[in-house]
């Protein structure tokens, strides 16, 4: 590919693009999160780390960051999008990010979303000010992914006008609960609501955990989860309830209420639909995690790219100085496609946040809109958190032994984000949810998400929609038949071709899945087996869907760039994001006749070319993320390597010269 | 695929197979590494952890584990294979594994391999008894991969009959040196030897670090590397030398010596060849790391499989109890191919250890034999350590939140092994070394491994060998032309077909690489650019080579099994290892016409079938590793989950029933 001379990043234009709709929140976070109080520290003991994070949280409680997500009536900012963006900026310590998410996102957010006016008035001010540190007590030891099967009970006692909250056995203890081991005073507890001997499914109640002295209240037992792989500044704990009594009004009663006589009522008749409606209001947590994962990946890339730009190893025959790591193709291939995908996910994340924000600000979403939002959130959370784990790992390895030292931050970023792939929804379970949502997209009612419901449905109603989708087929056939060769290489960078390729894959995988489910059901096999046999196909359908969404978001963002030089760079970056994905997934395209072998090899060659073209812009691209140097903190990213080389130059040897 | 009823593991037969040639060493390690002194602990502070590991090492110094690798003349066991196997058994704490490796492998091993009788007699007894804790001071801050370019100097002063060891600048400080921050008294220091104003390349010398009180000796400055991602029981440090004087006899003089008058002499004329000969004697370190990585992967799989066998989540419509995780196809797909590959790597490792051991015990290897051993070690180290990182990560995620808790060991295993991918040779650099070794396989002399040398050589001499290899082509053409379909599915499990497929890929990738290098050289491009442009191809050639070696080792091991039931299971496991590899790499096979699209899809289907067939044997397969329960330590692998479910059953509900 010829070098286009106009490719040159304008830092301000790039920053504007990346800061996006909530630029003001990002600027505010850059202003607030500075100084020694917020500087990353390594090597803290668990107790010390927890204390520091709590102190930091107190400092943030005095700022608007604490209030963005809450109703203006109670002093909140009324800006959900801002609350998600503020969360993702807290890369100076991911323990702080998660602790803030527990207090103001999960705990406060559940009161806001599931409670009614009386809860808002009574609790939200204390939630925001941190007078009332709280927990989101959903997960139990026995049930993490299958929340509908939680076993804690909240049994109504009409004589006392109270609920009795109880942990029936060890599997029902609340587990991994953030803010529980040390700080939490109050908890939103998810429990099976029982009244008049009848079960009404999972509901949330406010249950006190500790008194003003910090002593657990009678009937509450709390245990520390102890050290974890990371996030040791967050005090995760286990909670047992021994017939703990709370007033009837402790029930967060927006979607289900109990009258004084014990009568249950709900605006939603179907218990299943009610449950998923309640869960749906909590989708912000997943979206926030996807954003936080993205920032961690950005920080790791900023460190590795800066180091890769100055670190030298091995000499080349024709020059006195040693070769800079980022000049090696293998190094480019490790870092630059990951950088491109990080950009793509950034814009997909912004779209998702906007969708959440606008959905809450405007007319309530209809069922399908809500389901699509939830699937979008689930899919992006899974993809973004796996991407973060892989990218940070790659960055660690790209920095060699230096990347293994705590002082260079990569170990902490890696360990802290590791749990992102399994908390707020296990990624595999989430992708399955996306796959099922795609399958049930035309279904009119909320249904159980168990294998039986889906398989039955697919066998019955779904096939009509498949026919609609096959309209795209003629385009696809045309694409596949384009002869490979020189003209085929330029088509690789054509956005229309890329889009058609990814859309077609999405549709074809889904069609094939529906076909297999139908054939399985027709064979008379039991529904579990039918669905389980195609589980890998379900996950692929979900990935193909998310891949297309992410592509669209990046392409749309590039279309918004006015500065020609910046745009030229981002067009290549978008090409790299897409073609490195196509390269990774090229087996599928080959198997299904969408790429010829020659074209597939051309994709690999194009990825190499794009790496070379983008290499000069790598530093500007990571600088565009707008992460403060003090957040990166790693000496290898902040001049230590240059200083060593300069010392050697002063000693009379050319920089990087081999002895 | 039909279920073969004869597949059933005989535990003793499997253990014998896996324990292999050094079964006695494994049994000994199981005997020694027990009790509270060696039980894994989590949450230790760095100082406490270091102290504990040093205490453990002292206990081991009293056992034969310390002596296996040393000459019998000085009280050693004279069994290098045993020393590598003993190292890999130390999974109870990988800090202990690495600390032992530093003391008796790297430090003691360098004295043994690079020193002469005077060093052996004077130092080996103290090395073995731990009276003399020591360091292997090779890596510098500025040079890790490119060891030939180290900058520490050892300048001979004939007047004093001493060497002056010196750190000329910050980039030349020794870095990441195990045993340096706390315990080391003596170091093998790699430095540029200078005598009479002439440089003779990197040599090793014994330099004291601390006196009997543990105080650094004059001229030596030591700094702690501080906390790391893992291995915090190992005291890594940085060392500066300020004109430190050591006697002339401190030079480990097997491959290069300096007479009293300053005259340099060596049994190897070429400085380049001398350097690589010295390095080659240290190959055991890499082999040991590959083995240690393997054991860590085994431990993680043992934990995740045991948990996956009892942990339940989500109900199926037709049964009262919830579904066990390992019954989900997606869960099988995560764990079982990784388990199969772990087996394959185990046998490849045993072959490599035997090759090293027999090479040292018998006639010295010729140059080609030595180069192949080194390439074998480099390739297996890269592949095995990446496999361990990925596998432990997968196991962590497969255990959800429980996998993130320190008490369940997976975080520590993951963090400790993380550096294995970049120490003892960065994996990318090692694979490049393998690729170059393949290219230079017929070359008669040691040559510089820099890009120029290789590219020139390839353009000149290499092409002859390519012609020889094409003899395999007719077989390949035949394979590719086999019609897909029913008979094609059974061919997938044919070992001959699998072997031909992997051999052909290995040869074809190498041929293509040679062709591209030749074309690049012919084009007049500079050698660095020529080589850099195909760097991804070099890495692929290396991987294809290692993949074939690993396959051969597993297939050969299965062939040694007499018990029919065990053999039937291991045949499937070997099929799964191979076919999941082919599945992952199927894009290449499709691009090169080695698999038709239908056959490629059949490979995916076969992987799913094999997962289902092997699922009942998963527990027996991990038990076969022979890792003591107290090494696994994780409550989730040792009955905690069963206990919770039993508690629930006692409470009157069927185990795993959904509320």
TrEMBL record, chains A, B:
It is an enzyme of class 1 (oxidoreductase). One of its GO terms (molecular function) is FAD binding. InterPro entries: ACOX_C_alpha1, Acyl-CoA_Oxase/DH_mid-dom, Acyl-CoA_Oxase/DH_mid-dom_sf, Acyl-CoA_oxidase, Acyl-CoA_oxidase_C, AcylCo_DH-like_C, AcylCoA_DH/ox_N, AcylCoA_DH/ox_N_sf. Its cofactor is FAD. Residues 135-244 form the Acyl-CoA oxidase/dehydrogenase middle domain. Residues 505-637 form the Acyl-CoA oxidase C-terminal domain. Residues 280-439 form the Acyl-CoA oxidase C-alpha1 domain. Keywords: FAD, Fatty acid metabolism, Flavoprotein, Lipid metabolism, Oxidoreductase, Peroxisome. This is acyl-CoA oxidase. It comes from Thermobifida cellulosilytica TB100. The lineage of its organism: Bacteria, Bacillati, Actinomycetota, Actinomycetes, Streptosporangiales.
